[in-house]
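On to my pick:
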Amino acid sequence: MGCRACIAACHTENHLTPGSPWITAIEYERGRYPNARTVFATVGCMHCEDPPCQVACDGVGAHAISRNDYGVVIIDYDRCIGCRYCAAACPYGAPQYNHEVASLFPEGGADTPHTLQERHPTHRKRAGVVEKCTQCWHKLEPAIEAGRADLIGKEPRYTPSCDAVCPVGARIFGDLDDPESAVSRHVARKNATQIKKAYGTRPLVHYVLEGGDF
């Protein structure tokens, strides 16, 4: 419905740096007057099975991008050299160059940049590198380490913040390899699509779109 709660949650949870958003909203129209209406969608990293950003990064010898066993594509800020070849290679516009690390919070507040960056390596940003969505890996990893991966996508503390806050259940997160998971059943039932499939990246993010792709 275009409320952008997911974007606000991502900004807060992942210490947004102005100018490098991890998730953006797009609007487009369906139908014709007098039955036209606005359709909303959010776009971020697709966490591809064949990520072109990783190929580009490896090509320049930085090896700063990796895909873990759970399908999450992550950038190592200590290895990133800021060349931005990954951004050029990504067909979804996910990698964002971070010109400077600036806080959304007043100095001395409960969540200063230092406090946020101490949470997890994926928050230890620095200027001059590229960053993007991590599927809130800092929230998923504790569940996996505790042997409670079954709670991912079910409990907010183990679910990406963008998905956890959606007031209308438009976002569903879970294990696509588990045919019994809510997201797998939803994808099968709703005939979801992978946007820009022709790129051959095999994105793990699926969309249920009225009338096909956008």
